[in-house]
Structure formats: C-alpha cells, structure tokens
Amino acid sequence: MDYEAVIGLETHVQLRTRSKMWCGCANEFGASPNTNVCPVCLGMPGVLPVANEEALRLTALTGLLLNCAVSSVARFDRKNYFYPDVPKNYQITQYAQPSTANGYVDFEFNGGISRVRITRAHLEEDVGKNFHFERNSGVDFNRAGVPLLEIVSEPDISGADMAYEYLNALKDILVYGGVSDCDMEKGMVRCDVNVSVRPKGTNELGAKIEIKNMNSFSGVRKALEYEIPRQIEALNNGGKLVQSTRRWDDVAGVTEEMRTKEHAHDYRYFPEPDLMPFEPTKEWLAEVRKRVVELPLARKQRFMRDYQLPASDAQAFVWDVPLGDYFEGIAKQAKTPKVVAN
Ligand SMILES: [Zn+2]
User: What is the pLDDT of residues 104-147, one digit of tens each?
Assistant: First the structure.
C-alpha cells in the first residue's frame, strides 16, 4: 500500500530580551552556572512573577509576522510536573488562551510556494539545564525563566525536506523581525516533531508519534528520514502503531521509544493565580505593529520583480540585509539594476 506522512512541528524559540520572563535576571547565554538567578527564577516560596513586557511585545510581533490574530485577552496557566531543571515544579505557560493563533508561513519548496498553517504561538518560560558527570549531576538555573515562545504548526507538512524548509523559513522570519537570534549552537531553537503515516488519499490520522527535544534542523530532517519508513514498514508487516514518544539518537541514527500513551503526563493545568490576564490596548498593539518588517520571501520576490534580478542575486540580498539595502539605494537610480547587483 502507498502511505503518506503527516507532520506537525512544535518549535520552541528563546526571545531576544535583556531580562528573563518573570524577574530582572539577565537573559544571557554562557554565564557561569547559577549566576543569573534570583529567588523568583529559583522558585523560592512566596515570590511573585512580574511579566516581561518586551516578551509580550515580541510574542504579539511574532503573531503579526506569522499572519496570526493577536488575542484581545491572553491568560497564563500552570503546567505542573516535577523535574530537576524545573525549580517551581511547574512551568508558567499559556494553555487555553494563548497570545496569538491562526496564522501561516509561506516558503519556497520544490520550485513553488508552500504554506504551513500556524495553530498558535504561546508564551512560556524555559527551564534550567541538567549536566551529568561521571559520578553526579548538576543543574544550571541560568536558563530557567528565559522567555520562550512555542510555535505550533498544523499537520500540513508531508516530508522531511518540507519540514526542514519550513523550519528555516520560520527561523529567517524570526531573525528578520528581531524576535530571536535563533542561534542553534546556543540552544535558542528546539523542536518537537509529531509524525504519523496513513494510506495515501485517506483523511483519518494514524497513531501520532512524537520525537522530542530536537536541537537542529538537520537533525529533524534525519529523524524524519528514519521515522517515516519505520512506521510504513511496521504497518506493511501487519504491525500496529500506538501513540508514543520517541527520542532521536543522532549517533546511532535511529529513534527509540521513551514512553507510550499510558505513561503520558497529566499536567493538571490551571490558571496561574499570580498573574493577571493580559489585555493589549489598541495603542499598545499599534506600537508593536510599527516593528513589523518585510518578510524574507516578500523581499526576495520584490527584488526579483522590481529589479529583474535572478533568484540567486535576490536571495543574496535577503541573507545580507545591509548589502541589499545598499544595492537598492543605488539600483533605484540605475538603468540596469543587474549591473549594480554584480
Ligand atoms: Zn531571576
């Protein structure tokens, strides 16, 4: 039987703010362990969170860049779980009423333009980082409380290469908008992959397999190149797939089962009692709207259209914004923009 893959991605992106989400500690990569910490981000009893307004602005800005609606009321919720890198034993996130939802990303793929719809982009906080040594383990809480945006896509992706191109397009948009530096080396972008397969031409979704904590786009592509044939082979051999969570082993080049649905977390979400709902005013949103930039794809298409540039030249001016602006300043007065581009 012919099968097709159905893929949705949950992308976590650290926001480019000076301070953390609920306290004044620096949002800074590479500091000595546990130096950018305070009672708030260490989850001491009795402390209160204060929302970082710039993080709220960057979340709304992301919504606008991803063609989403910005909610008139956004709420924060507690997601309860115990893990050593979560000092409060809960994470503050947005569950029922996220800041922004219902958008899409257009990007170049297979010689055309593909669209992946965005379900929602919600604001939450990052967790600390565990380090495992030979005889003991340690936790660095510098990252705990760093503002984190989770961008959830609809299952509109049909293969490994498409997932890869979508992620790159998403990253380019966020970097262009000044939302995040998206430095993969520093773990600023991480991804959970939801993938299932079904007989081609059918509408019902197969058992959803989640591959957690991917930290590179090429890793996502490799994991999918392994996982999709694995699922198809299992079905072709008469097996049955169950909803489960897997991890990608980059060295071995395989995905491994971590837990099945019976062992899934129950996070017991409830409204965060220490934070007011956030209701952006018209004026506040208008200020955010001023920060909307021309998207990379629109810039490329404009350069090709207005200056008759080949795609490769236009792409070079998309990657190097100052160079592209410099070109445009001269090309506007030139008879042959292509010569200017050269
Ligand atoms: Zn702090």
Answer: 999 999 999 999 999 999 999 999 999 999 999 999 999 999 99
Same domain, 279 and 322: no
User: Domain limits at 307?
Assistant: 297-342
Q: Tell me the pTM.
A: 0.94
| Strand 189-199 versus strand 147-153 pairing type | unpaired
Q: Are 61 and 168 members of one domain?
A: yes
Long-range contacts of range 41-50, CB-CB < 8 Å, 24 or more positions apart?
41/87, 41/141, 41/144, 41/145, 42/87, 42/141, 42/144, 43/86, 43/87, 43/88, 43/89, 43/144, 48/274, 49/21, 49/22, 49/23, 49/92, 49/272, 49/274, 49/275, 50/22, 50/23
Q: What is the pLDDT of residues 233-253, one digit of tens each?
A: 999 999 999 999 999 999 999
Residue 124 alpha carbon to ligand 1 centre in Å: 15
- Cα separation, 72 vs 93, whole angstroms: 17
CA-angle at 154, arms to 148 and 157, nearest 5°: 110
Looking at the fold, whether 304 and 267 belong to one and the same domain comes out as: no
Kindly give the distance from the C-alpha atom of residue 85 to the centroid of ligand 1, in angstroms, as a whole number.
14
Compute, in angstroms, the gap from residue 296 CA to the centroid of ligand 1.
35
